[in-house]
C-alpha cells in the first residue's frame, strides 16, 4: 500500500528512507529487477525481470515522490470545487471537472483521461468505466474509498497476481491522475457516458 505496511513496506516508508540519497534510484531499481530480502524483513520481494529499465526507473521515481511535502506558497490553501449531484447533495473536489463557467464542458485533463480510458482501460474495466466481468468496476472501487494516491499506485505498479500489468513507463504519473479524474467524474455521475463535451466542441 502507499502509506500502510502490509507484507512489504509502504511506498511512503521507502521514500522516507531513500529520498535524496545518492544512488537511491539505481539501488531501488536493482532491487525491483532482481528481487530479494533483508532490507525490510525476511519476506522476499518478487523479482521483475520482464520490466524494462525505463519502466522500473519510472516506478522508482514515483515511489520516491510519495509523502514529499507539496510546495505551496505561504498561507495558501488548496482550492476546492463544489458540484451538485443528481440526488441533491454536493461534493467538493480538489481538482476541477469542468472548465470554469462552461459546465458541462470538461477540462483538458478530464478529457484526456476519457481518451486514455477508452483506448486502453476499457478492455478490462468496461467502456466509459461502466464495469465488466474481467476486472473491477472502478466506480465501485472509488465509492468504496479508493483515493487518488491509491488509484495511481495501482495504475503504475499493477496487480500482477490478479492479472493487471504495470502501466509504469507507458502512462506517466500525470496521465494516471487524468485517468483518476475522469473515473471520479464518472463515479459521481457528473461526466456522462460517451465522449464528454470539451473545449474542442
Descriptive key words:
single chain, 201 residues, mainly alpha, Cytochrome Bc1 Complex, Chain D, domain 2, two-stranded antiparallel ribbon, 7 helices
Detailed description of the structure:
- 26% of the residues are buried.
- The chain starts with 10 loop residues before the first helix and ends in a 14-residue tail after the last helix.
- The protein has two domains: 55 residues, Orthogonal Bundle (Cytochrome Bc1 Complex, Chain D, domain 2), CATH 1.10.760.10; 107 residues, Cytochrome c-like domain (Cytochrome Bc1 Complex, Chain D, domain 2), CATH 1.10.760.
- Helix 2 crosses helix 3, helix 4 packs across helix 7 and helix 6 crosses helix 7.
- It is built from seven helices and two strands.
- By secondary structure, the chain is mainly alpha-helical.
- A hairpin with a 5-residue loop joins strand 1 and strand 2.
Task: Indicate the structural class.
Answer: mainly alpha
Counting DSSP H or I runs of 4 or more residues, the number of helices is 7
Low-pLDDT segments: none
Tell me, rounded to a whole number, the average pLDDT: 86
Number of strands: 2
Shape: globular
User: Please, how many domains?
Assistant: 2
Helix content: 40-55%
CATH class descriptor of the largest domain: Mainly Alpha
In which order are the strands of the major sheet placed? 1-2
Percent of residues in beta strands:
under 5%
Query: Strand-and-helix sequence, N→C?
Result: HHHEEHHHH
Characterize the biggest β-sheet.
2 strands, antiparallel
Distance between the termini: 40 Å
CATH architecture of the largest domain: Orthogonal Bundle
The CATH topology of the largest domain corresponds to Cytochrome Bc1 Complex, Chain D, domain 2
Amino acid at each position: 500500500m502507499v502509506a500502510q505496511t502490509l507484507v512489504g513496506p509502504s511506498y511512503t516508508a521507502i521514500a522516507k528512507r531513500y529520498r535524496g540519497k545518492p544512488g537511491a534510484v539505481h539501488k531501488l531499481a536493482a532491487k525491483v529487477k532482481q528481487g530479494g530480502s533483508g532490507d525490510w524483513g525476511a519476506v522476499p520481494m518478487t523479482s521483475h525481470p520482464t520490466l524494462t529499465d525505463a519502466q522500473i526507473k519510472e516506478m522508482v521515481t514515483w515511489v520516491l515522490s510519495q509523502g514529499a511535502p507539496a510546495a505551496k506558497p505561504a498561507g495558501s490553501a488548496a482550492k476546492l470545487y463544489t458540484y451538485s449531484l443528481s440526488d441533491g447533495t454536493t461534493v467538493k473536489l480538489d481538482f476541477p471537472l469542468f472548465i470554469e463557467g462552461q459546465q458541462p464542458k470538461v477540462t483538458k485533463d478530464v478529457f484526456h483521461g476519457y481518451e486514455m480510458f477508452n483506448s486502453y482501460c476499457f478492455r478490462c474495466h468496461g467502456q466509459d468505466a461502466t464495469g465488466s466481468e474481467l476486472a473491477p468496476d472502478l466506480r465501485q472501487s472509488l465509492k468504496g474509498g479508493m483515493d487518488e494516491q491509491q488509484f495511481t499506485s495501482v495504475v503504475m505498479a499493477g496487480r500482477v497476481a490478479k492479472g493487471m500489468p504495470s502501466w509504469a513507463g507507458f502512462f506517466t504519473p500525470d496521465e494516471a491522475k487524468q485517468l483518476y479524474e475522469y473515473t471520479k467524474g464518472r463515479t459521481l455521475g457528473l461526466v456522462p457516458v460517451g465522449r464528454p463535451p470539451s473545449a474542442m466542441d
